[in-house]
Amino acid sequence: MVYDNKTANQTETVLQAENVNVYYGDFLAVKGIYLNIPKNKVTAFIGPSGCGKSTLLRCYNRLNDLIPIFRLSGLVTYRNQNLYGKDIDPVQVRRKIGMVFQRPNPFPKSIYDNIAFGAKINGYKGNMDELVEKSLRGAALWDEVKDKLKQSGLALSGGQQQRLCIARTIALQPEVVLMDEPCSALDPISTLKVEELIHELKENYTIVIVTHNMQQASRVADYTGFFNVTEVEGGNRQGYLAEYAPTEQIFQNPQEEATQQYVSGRFG
Ligand SMILES: Nc1ncnc2c1ncn2[C@@H]1O[C@H](COP(=O)(O)OP(=O)(O)OP(=O)(O)O)[C@@H](O)[C@H]1O
C-alpha cells in the first residue's frame, strides 16, 4: 500500500481512515485504507469502476449503514472522534458531513422549501428567509432563482437542480461536503458552474469528491487519491488506495505505475 499523507498533513486533518476494510456480506470490497482528508481542501477520489470510491465516501457520513450487509473494520475518525463509536448518532454525523449525489434529487417542493424543509427538520430556529438566501447565494444559484422561489425545484435545469441540492446541503451548515460524481448527469456548461462553485465552497467547507472525469479532478482537487482493484481468489475484485498525493503529483509525476497508466488513459 502506498499513500502519501505527508503533504496532506500540512493542514489540519478533518477525516481520517486508519486501516479501513469494508465488507458487503463476506465480500471484502475495500481493503486497508489509510487516508487523511485535509480541512478546507478539495480531495478527489479517482480510479476504475468498482474500486470502492463511493463505498469509502459513504463511510464518511455513515450512509452505508443503510445497507444491511455492510460492515466496516478499522477506524474512521472525524475530528479525532470515532465515527462508528457507540455514542455517535448517524443523523448528527450526516448533518455535519453532508452528501451531494450523482443525480440531482431535489424534493418535489418549491425552491424555497427545498432549503427550508431540511433546516426545519434539523431544528433551525433562525430567520428562514435569510437562511434560504444565504444558502442559495452560497451555491451560486440566488441570482437565477430569486424571483421564483415559490416555483418547484423540479422545474429547474439539471445543473440548477444540482446547485439547489448543494444549497440544501450547505443550509445545514455542515463542515464537510461529500460529492459522489456530482457532475456526471450535467452538461459541460453546468459542470463548469458546479466546478467553479466547488472552488468557492472550499473556503468554508472541506470537500471530498468522487469523479470519473480526470480533467475534473485535475481542475478542482488539491489532493487526489487513486484507487485501484486487484483480483483475488474466487474472481472477486478488491479495491485499495494505490496512491494519494497532491493532485499535481498524481497527474504529472505519479509514483506508482498503475497511477501513471490510469491518468494517461491506458487503462480503466
Ligand atoms: N450495496 C452493495 N452491496 C453489495 N456490494 C456492493 C454494494 N455497493 C457496492 N458494492 C460492491 O463494492 C465494490 C465497490 O463498489 P463502489 O460502488 O464503491 O465502487 P466505485 O469505485 O465507486 O465504482 P463506480 O466508479 O463504478 O461507481 C464493487 O465490487 C461493488 O459491486
Comma- or semicolon-separated keywords:
four-stranded antiparallel beta sheet; binds adenosine-5'-triphosphate; globular; 10 helices; single chain; alpha/beta; 268 residues; disordered N terminus
Structural features, described:
The structure is a single chain. Helices cover 32% and strands 27% of the residues. The protein has helices at 53-59, 90-96, 111-121, 128-138, 142-145, 158-170, 188-201, 214-220, 247-252, 257-263; strands spanning 13-24, 27-38, 42-46, 70-78, 81-82, 97-100, 176-180, 206-210, 223-231, 237-246. Helix 3 (111-121) packs across helix 4, helix 3 (111-121) packs parallel to helix 6 and helix 6 runs parallel beside helix 7. It starts with 12 loop residues before the first strand and ends in a 5-residue tail after the last helix. It has ten helices and ten strands. A hairpin with a 2-residue loop joins strand 4 (70-78) and strand 5. The protein is globular. It is an alpha/beta fold. Bound molecules: adenosine-5'-triphosphate. Adenosine-5'-triphosphate binds next to helix 1 and strand 10. InterPro entries: AAA+_ATPase, ABC_transporter-like_ATP-bd, ABC_transporter-like_CS, P-loop_NTPase, PstB-like. It holds the Pfam family ABC_tran.
Shape: globular
Ligands bound to this protein structure: adenosine-5'-triphosphate
Most strands sheet? 6 strands, mixed
Strand element count: 10
How far apart, in Å, are the first and last alpha carbons?
A: 19 Å
Helix count from the secondary structure assignment = 10
- Portion of residues in helices? 25-40%
How much of the residues is beta strand, in percent?
A: 25-35%
Q: Mean pLDDT, nearest integer?
A: 93
Q: Trace the largest sheet across and list its strands.
A: 6-7-8-3-9-10
Classification by helices and strands: alpha/beta
The topology string of helices and strands comes to EEEHEEHEHHHHEHEHEEHH
Gyration radius from CA atoms, angstroms: 19 Å
Low-confidence stretches: 1-9
